[in-house]
């Protein structure tokens, strides 16, 4: 009886997992299907994931008739500025919080948490104030500035995460490096960073997801010639009509870099996620 119960329980869990996976994957398959449909058949009642009259017209339009590569270049510039500025601040900050018990350390850490909440809840009024300030100093419509804003927005979360990860690295590594005559900077770059590579990859994924998908700040601070891919996607939405097949095609192409980054980093991410929970 016990074996039968275990078998039925296992079968029920497996069935639930399959149904959940199908529910999660269905929107992706439907976007893929929409991207290869002619616009005239998008709103028919026929539910076929692979349409009979499949066409690559939407992809041709995105790649050869739209400004997709210009938007992709803009996104890469913003992404590079965000990633570099975030890591160059968060790695030393996380190391300091992890290794030194200085006066006001806990207060400063808590203020990082408060700052993270403020960043995540930035209102339209706050963005308007930021826009007016950048206009006043002549730095509006700058991809680098938008990247730096993105990088600053990720600093609280990434610092907290990396601090937790650095806590899991034994102090003996630091002590051995200092005995060999290494400076603090050399210790961070040549000892801590290589050991913490899985955790840093997790931080990079977080920065990448936020930077690659954010469109509100970019839409306010960048002009049409400097639009990033998320902003360009919103411009496809018309007031009365939207070419959803082209929208779907651009969405798929726009998501490919993140998918590639995640696939290449998967092994490091698994290590980083598990190690970060060793110590609080």
Describe this protein's structure.
- This protein has 12 helices and no strands.
- It is 76% helix and 0% strand.
- The radius of gyration is 24 Å and the shape is globular.
- The model has no long low-confidence stretch (mean pLDDT 84).
- Helix 3 runs parallel beside helix 6, helix 4 crosses helix 6 (143-167) and helix 6 (143-167) packs antiparallel against helix 9.
- With 280 residues, the chain is mainly alpha-helical.
- It folds into 2 domains: 2-55, no CATH class; 61-275, MetI-like fold (Orthogonal Bundle).
- It has helices at residues 2-35, 57-65, 68-99, 105-120, 124-137, 143-167, 172-179, 184-195, 197-213, 216-221, 229-235, 244-275.
Concise account of the structure shown:
This protein has 280 residues and is an all-alpha fold.
Keywords summarizing the entry:
280 residues; mainly alpha; MetI-like fold; 2 domains
